[in-house]
Amino acid sequence: MSDTPAPLLAVNNVEVIYDHVILVLKGVSLAVPGGGIVALLGANGAGKSTTLKAISGLLRTERGEVTKGSIELQGVPLRRKDPSDVVRLGIVQVMEGRHVFEHLTVEENLLTGAYSQRDGRAAKRDLEMVYAYFPRLRERRGVGAGYVSGGEQQMVAIGRALMAHPKLMLLDEPSMGLAPMLVHEIFEIVSRLNREEGVSVLLAEQNASIALRFADYAYVMENGRVVLDGDRKTISENEDIKEFYLGLSGVGQRRSYRDVKHYRRRKRWLS
Q: pLDDT tens digit string along 25-41?
């Protein structure tokens, strides 16, 4: 028998189809250990966001469906569960694009994350915890969320998710559209939440450089498949990955990971 503990989240051979005909995910498997930070890397359109929505139950709002495979949180099947039930089980997704309620204040946005709590005093304690991690939000608590900066909106979105006491937070492209200093600040806070609050994180991110500074393990996706996975050191030092993310073809288009890998195999065979 193996002494390896069962993962917090287990995704096994998942297939996703949109509009009953468009195959988007093709046998995706991944795992997130309790207390871990795992990165999903890949270019735009690789299937990262679809993978997160398959886990959180949000696919059905976009005419998507998991047609094959299993998704389990601590052994509990998530497939076909409503998004609200998935949240109650301990998974909260922070959507790409910083979806905040623009007509509500920063604090009102944060309190919507505690909708499942009936204890008002507990919600106030949680609010203080969020402000401790995001002191800038305390300063902006009475400002309409539509009038704060993009970085502050991202903080609101993460803080709102934290109010639901997640076991697992799904972060979709948290660096998108933000200045490098803000990106680093937000990732540092997420890392603290992981260490101090025990929140596990599955992070979908195009910015491989920043993701690999904080993730323990990473999966590389392309065209709806996982093409490589490994720990931070293995992925960071992989020459194929470096060329996939940094190298461009002669006409200025990013080459696919599979093309790069085939090219390197051929080069080694000829040498």
A: 999 999 999 999 999 99
Question: What average pLDDT does this structure show over 206-231?
Answer: 93
| Range scoring the smallest mean pLDDT among 23-32, 130-139, 157-166, 260-269 | 260-269
Here the CATH number for the domain that contains residue 77 is: 3.40.50.300
Angle at CA 27, nearest 5°, toward 21 and 32? Answer: 125
Residue with tokens 């910083």: 98
Within a domain: 143: yes
Same-domain check for residues 205 and 265: no
Mean pLDDT, the chain, whole residue set: 87
Domain membership flag for residue 2: no
Exposed, middle or buried: residue 54 (CB in 10 Å: 0-12, 13-18, 19+)? buried
pTM: 0.87
Q: Is 198 within 8 Å of 33 (Cβ atoms)?
A: no
In a shared domain, residues 201 and 98: yes
Would you call 63 helix, strand, or coil by DSSP? coil
C-alpha 267, offset from chain centre: 35
Range of the domain at 268: 247-271
